[in-house]
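sry for the spam today, last one i promise. C-alpha cells for design, 326 residues
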C-alpha cells in the first residue's frame, strides 16, 4: 500500500468538513502561568464517537467503491477505532463487524454495539485479533479496515494536524512542539505529514505509556521494535505489539523522538484535564498532556500543542482517578 501524501490529507479534510467536528484548541491562563509556557490542547475527546478515530474511519469507508460497500466492513480495535468504524458504517448504511478484546472498557463495547455493529469478543492474551478479523472478512466477503496501517486511515487522522495548524494561524501562534499520543502511529504519522507542509518548524514528539514505548525505541534503533509480551498499562487505546509498518516509515522520517509516561502520571493528567479544561480524557488520550504536566517535557518559554486524543473512559475508573488525584 502506498504511503499517503499531503494531498491525501487535504482531500480527507474536504471530505470530512461536513461530517467531523472542528475540535477546539483549549487553553488555561492559570495553567500557563504555572508552567511558564503556553499550552494548547487539541481536544479530540470532543470528536464524534469520542476520539480522533472517527476521522480515519469515515475517510476510509467513504472511499470504498459504492458497488462493494453492501458487503460490509470488519475491523479490530480495543474501542476507539471500533466506534469510529461502527459510526461511519452506520452513516453509510452498511453492516459492520468489530473484533474487540473481552477486557476492553465496557463503555467502548456498549457504544460500539449502540452504533449498530456486531461485536465479536476475543482474549487478547491467547488469540490474534488480526487473524480473527482477517478470517471474518474472508468468510463474509467483507472489507477489512485496519486501525492504522492504511493510507486512507492515516490521511483522515492527519486532518487533526491540518486543523490545528489552521487554528494556530488564526491565533497568530507559532507552535514550537506538538506532543501526540502514539499507539500504532496513525495519528502522529498523519499529523507529521500535515505539519511538514503547514508548520515545518514544529518539532513533533510521540508520547507512549511506559512499557509500550515501542515507537520511541524504534526511532532510536532505526527499525521497528516490539514491546514485551507481559507489559501492562491502563492506557488500553495505546496497547499495541509494535509500530505499524506504514506508519513507522513516515514517523521515522518526520518524528523527532518519543517520551514515555507512567500510568500514575497519566492518571494525574486526566484529573488536571478535568480541573483546568473541564475535559473528560481517557488514559490513552491523556499521555501527551501527562508528559508536560509531569515535567517529562519542559515547556518553559515555548508554545506547545498536546493532542488529547480520546475521552471514552470507563466511568468507574474515571471516578477513581478523580478521587485520587483531585
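last one done:
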Amino acid at each position: 500500500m502506498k504511503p499517503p501524501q499531503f494531498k491525501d490529507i487535504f482531500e480527507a479534510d474536504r471530505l470530512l468538513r461536513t461530517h467531523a467536528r472542528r475540535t477546539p484548541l483549549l487553553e488555561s491562563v492559570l495553567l500557563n502561568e504555572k508552567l511558564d509556557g503556553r499550552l494548547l490542547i487539541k481536544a479530540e475527546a470532543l470528536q464524534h464517537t469520542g476520539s480522533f478515530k472517527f476521522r480515519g474511519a469515515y475517510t476510509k469507508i467513504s472511499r470504498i467503491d459504492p458497488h462493494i460497500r453492501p458487503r460490509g466492513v470488519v475491523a479490530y480495535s480495543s474501542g476507539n477505532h471500533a466506534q469510529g468504524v461502527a459510526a461511519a458504517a452506520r452513516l453509510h448504511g452498511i453492516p459492520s463487524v468489530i473484533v474487540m478484546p473481552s477486557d476492553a472498557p465496557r463503555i467502548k463495547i456498549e457504544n460500539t454495539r449502540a452504533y449498530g455493529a456486531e461485536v465479536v469478543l476475543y482474549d487478547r492474551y491467547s488469540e490474534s485479533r488480526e487473524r480473527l478479523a482477517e478470517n471474518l472478512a474472508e468468510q463474509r466477503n467483507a472489507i477489512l479496515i485496519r486501525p492504522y496501517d492504511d493510507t486512507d486511515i492515516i490521511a483522515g487522522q492527519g486532518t487533526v494536524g491540518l486543523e490545528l495548524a489552521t487554528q494556530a494561524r488564526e491565533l497568530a501562534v507559532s507552535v514550537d512542539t506538538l506532543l501526540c499520543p502514539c499507539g500504532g502511529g496513525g495519528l502522529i504519522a498523519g499529523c507529521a505529514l500535515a505539519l511538514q507542509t503547514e508548520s515545518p518548524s514544529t518539532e513533533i514528539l510521540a508520547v507512549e505509556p511506559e512499557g509500550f514505548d515501542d515507537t520511541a525505541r524504534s526511532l532510536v534503533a532505526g527499525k521497528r521494535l516490539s514491546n514485551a509480551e507481559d507489559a501492562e498499562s491502563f492506557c488500553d487505546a495505546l496497547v499495541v505489539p509494535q509500530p505499524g509498518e506504514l506508519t513507522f516509515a513516515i514517523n521515522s522520517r518526520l518524528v523527532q523522538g518519543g517520551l514515555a509516561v507512567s500510568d500514575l502520571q497519566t492518571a494525574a493528567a486526566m484529573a488536571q484535564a478535568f480541573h483546568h479544561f473541564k475535559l473528560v480524557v481517557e488514559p490513552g488520550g491523556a499521555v501527551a498532556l501527562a508528559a508536560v504536566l509531569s515535567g517529562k517535557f519542559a515547556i518553559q518559554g515555548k508554545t506547545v500543542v498536546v493532542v488529547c486524543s480520546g475521552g471514552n473512559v470507563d466511568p468507574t475508573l474515571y471516578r477513581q482517578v478523580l478521587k485520587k488525584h483531585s
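The chain has a mean pLDDT of 96. ok im logging off now
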